[in-house]
């Protein structure tokens, strides 16, 4: 295959391309996060780990990193993109990554987004300096995914001009709350807001209030009960806890009142009339956390692949039958096709997701700069954030697991880092939105073309929503539109079996699958609606179809981002290599779902077999570049930490006679 | 679908069927493994965990469990099947499971299998009583999978009638050795045996010697260096370590000499002339460890499913649109199709693997009773053990991961047990043989019809082996042969699209796939051989094909075992239910590989789509029985330990107004 002629990878060029728009933030992180203080550790007790993580958090305040996401009015740099990128660089200990995310991203982010200037002035300096360690108290034991049904209440008392924050039952206790068990002083508490009305309390839906939870001595405030969630699978440097409020009173002005306010007399007002729309608008402002998690999952994946690829490049096992005249040689395990199959398609997808993430962060950043709110763009951003978070974290879980196995017994040793990467990142598929629920949101947005959907978290909302709608499947592009359309236009016609490596054909194939699945789903839901079937049953029987649509959409979006990324590469030979990697990404995606493509006659049986052969061929062709392709991720050796990735295996072999 | 009429599950009957031939061993374990001492714990330091595990091991000596696998001559009960079944019951803390496996199974097992009566008398009582804690020192840093190339040497010195055991380089240090870091007093050391010859030392291949590693005070013996492997992803109650030997001398009689002996004058003798055959015969006697791991993986999977299914049955999220007159109700998450899809096909496969495991243990047990060695049966057992270990441990890793995710944040909390089950069982895909290597052995045995293969661990052996062979694919059955053949005979003809639930068709479909893949592989290798291609390249380019053949074989073998197991069920209604579960197993296997079946025109596109619909339908139909289907595994509540599996969620909901 002529495509597989040797190429030269320009590492500086590729590093620059991957570092992207926020290269300076990545460089700063590489510069700052050095030495003993930030190096990976293992085997600490939970308390030691928590203390260390808190110290690290304080140390970060000397770097300027905490100011990225905050308004200039309080000393921030108002660079949302930078705040997300900085988060993802903290891979040396993901407990610090998450602790920082809780303090600056979630707690600080809620005050920024939902509070008004008075709140910013009062709280944000203390958030940035970690003088006010804080919690983002949204999730309750009874409701994680279904935020709209939280049960904590905040009832206004005009007599004292205070809100009474209360936990009515065990379902309403705040659960898994980061910073709660040890360090938090305040919490941004999500609660059902109630004001007095002539016929009893009036409900205004979920709002957020600032509630002190510990006094200066670190003791719980009166009426606040705190429990430690205890030991977890990973992230034991983060002190997750539970919170109960027993008629806790906070001043009226501690309601974060950007989207809903209560006057001293108890009159409620909001710039958004529709309560549903208000709720989803408020939630939408918190999208940064989800995007950060997708980025963090990406870095964890890159770290695991860096370790596994470097080790497999040096680790040898089993002897290659000797050439006539030479001695028998043991084979580096990355030379085996099965090993390449484990690591290289995962590496290709990691690249693809990297470009998709960069695109998403850019979009988030630009929307944050807009004066005018663009409803459609915001919906589209929320949908893509949900989808990318889901696919990136599933990919992380699967890939890090594979890397552990690919390193055998060495991969099971804590000092080789893979166990911690696996355990820490494991919860990423759950927090900031359960992946299955998120993928449904993606599909809903597709079906509604990003209109009127308010990012509804309620999966049954989908079924209810169907009534009387006319669906129109519109393929929306965000990345490099003219380039993508040009490539598709140049694709060979359907039924033409030439050009397995034709990018236009790839783009068309994934777009066609997305369109077909989504249209089929719409038709199915419409039919069921006409029959008068039970809305829950209709939704539930189609749930696998719903998820398939979301997945197909994301595969297409991620491919387009990869294609657009390669187009920005300034070095021809490097771009060619990236194109092979992109071939591997898309063909392994198609191979994984070959059943669908064959069932729907999008591939002939011969073509389907040819794709398997092509994936093998691409693995073989990319193998010589594998180490360079992980090195350009630019994760410092001391962040990887693993001796097996840092020459120990090579050194050991030198010792062997 | 009439198949889905309500059924009554007879729990006692099903429990009896699952408990099987060694039900008394399972009952004893349920009886003995109770109370504080054996309950699951988490959050211990490594040293605390090791101490606790060692105490538990000592406590086991009071139960008779350690005697199961040992000869009657030394006070054992010589019940190999019982020893494997007892191992798999120790799921309350898998560190104990593995520690027991190291002491009685590996260390004691090596002395039993490779030693002679003198060794049995001298060592086995101390092994059973744990007065001699011991190591199975096979794996070296440089060679795990490729045992034949171990580098530790044992050189005979006729002057003193001793062996000199030596570690020549870092590749040869013993690594990951259980019992080495803290407790072990002796080690069964695998080393290259050398005797003096006229022209320098004569090599006799890998043999095993008893080497003291610590004195009575617990200090390393002279010449022995011991290092702690340190903290691991899981199993931190097991003290894995590294061993180096510096010219350590042991008496001639401490060579385990059943398969090879050295006379005082240095003359080597063996009942097996061919060194290759001798090596694989010796390794073959150690097959019990691999079978035990498959069983342990099965129990870990059952425990995780028990937790996740019970929790999902009570945990509710999102509201079902209310009936006209009732209040809105939140939906138990196991009612969602997507959640059923996560857990129920995995449950079906767990059942299938259970029956395959029971069959394998029975076969092992019966062969151990045979006076005469049956080469073919032994090869067949080894191949099946390799295959079942691979598929059962991969299934465990995947399923426990899925269960964690299915329990959301609760699944991430250590007290809910899933983190520990995941971390502990993770290494099962690697130890006792890397799964990828094992699956290749399966295929090799298929290609050679279990002849002449000596269970060769060297994957390149496969390529070398091809020269001039004529392949003949023979489908070998072990389970209920007449029943299976009757079912296949009654299957509708190919191309007949009726009877999606016809068992004969299922059996034929999987058998046909295995045959086609294996024959295709054989033809491919033959062709390449004829071309005179490089043996390594030939093997390597076909490696995915090799693995696919092994996987297809195991799917068929496991299905046959499931079918045979159901045939033993005495209750008609329960058998019907098991048949639905078996439908779910086989149809989800086919669905997962639908690309292959379509590519090879074994399924029409319509049939393939119908299978997806059938899997959904089966999930829905089995959902009401899910809790019973995990309860009959008979894992004690206190072994599961997880509050979310033991009523905590139900209780919490009772609290909610």
Protein architecture, described:
Chain A has 657 residues and is α+β, with helices and mostly antiparallel strands. The first copy, chain A, has 3 domains: 3-128, Orthogonal Bundle (Butyryl-Coa Dehydrogenase, subunit A, domain 1), CATH 1.10.540.10; 136-274, Butyryl-CoA Dehydrogenase, subunit A, domain 2; 286-318 and 330-640, Butyryl-CoA Dehydrogenase, subunit A, domain 3 (Up-down Bundle). Chain A is built from 23 helices and 13 strands. The first copy, chain A, has helices at residues 11-19, 23-32, 46-60, 80-88, 94-114, 117-128, 275-284, 287-314, 337-369, 375-406, 418-425, 435-448, 459-465, 481-489, 503-531, 535-541, 543-567, 572-592, 594-599, 605-622, 626-631, 637-640, 648-655; strands at 134-137, 153-157, 162-166, 174-177, 186-195, 202-212, 224-228, 241-245, 248-251, 261-262, 268-269, 316-320, 329-332. In chain A, strands 1, 2, 3, 5, 6 and 9 form a 6-stranded mixed beta sheet that branches. In chain A, strands 4-8-7 form a 3-stranded antiparallel beta sheet, with no helix packed on it. Chain A has a two-stranded antiparallel ribbon with strand order 10-11. The longest helix of chain A is centred in the middle third of the chain and has 33 residues, at 337-369. Chain A starts with 10 loop residues before the first helix and ends with a helix. At the A-B interface, strand 12, helix 9, helix 10, helix 11 and helix 13 of A face strand 12, helix 9, helix 10, helix 11 and helix 13 of B.
How would you sum up this structure in a few lines?
2 copies of one chain form a homodimer. The first copy, chain A, is of the alpha+beta class.
